[in-house]
Amino acid sequence: MQNILIVVDMQNDFIDGALGTKEAVAIVPRVAEKIRGFHGPVLFTRDTHRPDYLDTQEGKKLPVVHCVEGTEGWQIREELKALCKTAPIDKPSFGSTRLGELLLSMNEAEPIGSVTLIGLCTDICVISNALLIKAFLPEVPVTVDAASCAGVTPESHQNALNAMKMCQIEIINE
Questions:
Q1: What is the CATH number of domain 2-172?
Q2: 104 pLDDT tier (thresholds 50, 70, 90)
Q3: Hey, is 29 helix, strand or coil?
Q4: pLDDT band at 26 (very low <50, low <70, confident <90, very high)
Q5: Rounded distance between C-alpha atoms, residue 133 and residue 155, angstroms
Q6: How far is the C-alpha of 67 from the C-alpha of 63, rounded, in Å?
Q7: How many Cβ atoms are within 10 Å of 141's Cβ, its own excluded?
Q8: How many CB atoms lie under 10 A from the CB of residue 105?
Q9: Is the separation of the CB atoms in 146 and 154 below 8 Å?
């Protein structure tokens, strides 16, 4: 059985760029340590928008241009990029069906024992992908490492953790 680590949107704009927070900056070393110590496939996701972002539904509800493909803010954080062994999964919205489909095919090739998520933002993309993975692989244990995640605010981070826990996603603090 293989265990999978998903590193969600550890991009410059979410760390110290357009939508950065001090909590996001603080988890970078922990995320790097978690990746280095993980035995199994590590997959990165990357929030990816086009220059017309403000014309999209998301852009109208969150009118802060961020993670536009090809910009510095779109890039995976430099110290983590070196740990990324495969191309990041670009996703145009919060959750990635492409990630779910990839995990399904990986599970068919070799059963997945568990999926762990870390990264940003707990209350938007981490929760979206955790629930999506649970829908694609309902019998595979899904875990979120709260200590390796940060939300838009500490309160929304905690709210997302509570919601995921209610959906049978294990919450750890390692």
A1: 3.40.50.850
A2: very high
A3: helix
A4: very high
A5: 24
A6: 13
A7: 15
A8: 8
A9: no
**Runs of H (alpha helix) within 57-151:** 57-61, 78-81, 97-109, 127-136
Q: What gap in Å lies between CA 35 and CA 26, rounded to an integer?
A: 16
Angle CA(8)–CA(34)–CA(108) in degrees, nearest 5?
60
Instruction: Tell me: pLDDT of 117 over 90.
Output: yes
Domain boundaries in the chain? 2-172
CB 121 within 8 A of CB 12: no
Rounded Cα distance between 133 and 45, Å, is: 13
Name the token pair of 57. Answer: 């539904």
As a whole number of angstroms, the distance between CA 53 and CA 158 comes to: 28
The model's pTM = 0.97
Average pLDDT of the chain to the nearest whole number: 97
